[in-house]
Recover the amino acids of this structure.
């Protein structure tokens, strides 16, 4: 009898290392090279961020300016009978909505409220301006 393992037995199969799990996610089925891992050569093997995509920075604040412009324009439009206040709110809404629209287009974020704010602000300024001219 020879010392070779019987075909199909466990001793005939190559030895595999057990899979490595972290947080319920499969990290590795055994030893892998830097190229397979997508890692950087020389990076420590136990780096927890290894294999995960890098996150992109998030820009915050453009939506808030558009919302503020919309609110100013809407309140100015509703209160157009109080012409001086509506004129101030309309002009403030124009400035805020315009800058919110510019920021939204720059960042590629939705610009719906900025456009609605521009519309309400223009109407508030026009209606309160007509009312101011008609009263004087």
């Amino acid at each position: 009898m020879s010392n070779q393992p019987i075909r199909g037995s466990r001793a005939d199969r190559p030895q595999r290392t057990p899979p490595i799990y972290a947080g319920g996610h499969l990290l590795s089925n055994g030893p892998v090279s830097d190229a397979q891992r997508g890692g950087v050569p020389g990076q420590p093997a136990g780096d927890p961020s290894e294999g995960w995509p890098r996150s992109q920075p998030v820009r915050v604040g453009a939506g808030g300016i558009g919302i503020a412009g919309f609110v100013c324009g809407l309140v100015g439009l509703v209160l157009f009978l109080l012409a001086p206040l509506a004129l101030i709110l309309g002009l403030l809404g124009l400035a805020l909505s315009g800058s919110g629209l510019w920021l939204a287009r720059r960042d590629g974020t939705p610009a719906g409220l900025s456009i609605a704010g521009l519309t309400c602000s223009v109407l508030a300024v026009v209606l309160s301006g007509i009312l101011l001219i008609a009263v004087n």
In short: DSSP finds four helices and two strands in the chain. The longest helix spans residues 83-107.
